[in-house]
Amino acid sequence: MSRLVVLFANRENKSLLAQFLVPRYEVVFDLPVSDDHEDEIDIDLIITDGLSLKDAASRIAALRHQSDPVLIPVLLMSDRQSVGTMSKDLWRVVDDVVLRPLEKREMRTRVESLVRARRLSQRLQSMSHAYRHERRVAQRFQKAALPRALPKVPGLTFGAFYRPGMDEAQIGGDWYDALRLPDGRVLFSIGDVCGSGLDAAVAMASVRQVFRGAAHINPDPGMLLDAAHRTLHAENPESLVTAFVAIFDPVTALLIYASAGHPRPLLRTPDGGVVELECSGGPLGLPFDVERTVHETSMPIGSLLVLYTDGLTEADRDPIGGEEALRRALQDAEVIAAPNVALAIHDAIIREASPDDVAVLTVAHVERTLASERLVHWSFDSRDPDAFRDVREEFMAELVKGKLPVDAVSNAELVFAELIGNVVRYAPKWVDVTLDWSGPAPVLHVLDGGPGFRYLPKLPDNPLSETGRGLFIVARLADDFYVTKRPHGGSHARAVLSAASDAAGLARAGRA
Hints:
This protein is an alpha+beta fold. The protein has three domains: 3-129, Response regulator (Rossmann fold, 3-Layer(aba) Sandwich); 146-365, 4-Layer Sandwich (Phosphatase 2c, domain 1); 375-511, 2-Layer Sandwich (Heat Shock Protein 90). It has 14 helices and 20 strands. It has a five-stranded parallel β-sheet. A five-stranded antiparallel β-sheet has the order 6-15-14-11-12, covered by helices on one side. Helix 8 (319-329) packs across helix 10 (341-349). The longest helix has 42 residues, at 104-145. It starts with a strand and ends with a helix.
C-alpha cells in the first residue's frame, strides 16, 4: 500500500482528506526524520496546504534531495489567493497544485498520477542500478578478454590501444589480439561485435578464443573465420561480428589474411606509401554461409600494418573524413616514430573521445639481428651431398650449442634429413634452411622451389608405401609440423623441434 503524508494546518481539513484517502492509502501526518544513511525513504506522496508548506519546506527539500533521483512528489492544495503569495523557494518543492474547491474524482486522479510517477522513478532507478552493474561487469569481462601483453616476436614491434566508448550503450564489442604460434608465425586479429553490453563482451571473447584455439590446428585465415562463424551460430545465434584475421610469417615476410566485413586495414610501405588491403566477405553470424577469400601480400622490413575498428574513423560521424585523417596520420613522422604508434594514431585522429569503442593494433616489421636472436640461415643445392653434410653438421652444432638433449638432437637430425630428402626427391634445386630459436623451442624451416604442396599429418594410404612415410615420421618426431605452398611456387615446411629429452621419440614414430 502506498504511503502518503498529509500536512495540513487546519485539523478539520486534515481529517476530511484522511477519511477520503484511507481506503486506498496508508496516511501519516508527519515527515520522517531525515537520515542520510537510509537506503530508501518510505514516502510515496506529500500532500500539504500553503501554511504547512512554509513551515516544512526545508525538511521536504532535504528529504527530496536525499531520495534523488527517486521522486518524492509534493501536491499543494490551496486557494487562488495563497498561490499568488508563494515564493520561488516554495515552488521549487511543489510538483502539482489543486485549487479548492475541487471534486473527489479530480483529487483521486491527481493523487494516483503522482504516486504512479513515484513508482516509475523507482523502477527507473532500479533499472539504472542494474545497467550500471552490467556495464561494470562488461568492462571487467572485456578487460580480462583483451591480451594483457602482446607477444615478443623478433623482427616485429607492436602498438595497441583500446578505449571504451563514451556512449554507455556501446560497451563490450571491440577487441584486438596477437599471438605467436609454436612454429614462429604470428596471428593478428581485430573485430567488432554488433550490439552492446555483456552479451557483446561474451561474443567477443568467444570469437577471439576460437581464433586462438583453431590457429594451433590450422593457421589458415579462412578456416579461422569459418570456425568462428560456426561457433556464433551454435552459441550466440543472434550476434553479428565483423573481424579481420591475418597470419604473418617472419621468415618469409608473407602476410595471409581474410576479412569478415571489417574495415580494411592499411599497410604503410617502406617508401612511405599507404596501401589499403584488399578485403571481401560478409560479417560472421549471418544466417547463411559466406565464402571466405584468403588474400596474401608481402610485408617487407620497414612496413607498418594498421588494424582498427570503426570507432577510430567514425568518432565524428564522418567515415570518409576519418579515413582521410588516418591516412594523414600515417604520413606524420612524429606519429610513426612514437613509442606506441597505435596510441599516437588515435590521438592524431580523435581529439576528445569517440562515442563508440576504439581498438587499434599496429605491427611494424623491423630489421632482425640474426646473431642475438639465434637465427641461422643456410642456402645450398639439395643435389650436392657434400653441401648437405656440411649444413647438417652445422645444424646439429647449433642444437648442441643450444644445449638440446642428445636424444633430441638425434631426432632433430632425422627430421632435417627427411625434409631435405623430400626436397631431393620432389624439388631437386636450391633449398633455403633456417633454424629459428628465438622462441621457446627451435623451429626448422625448409623452403624449396618445387611445385608446392600442403601436408596433412596422416599415414599414407598404403602402409607399405615409402611415399609420404618420411613426412609422417617428421610429424611424429616434431612437436608441430606444417607444410604450406609458397605464393610464387615451392613449399615451406615448418617443424617445431622438441627441446625436451625424449628417448621414446623414434618409438612413437615406429608405433604409428
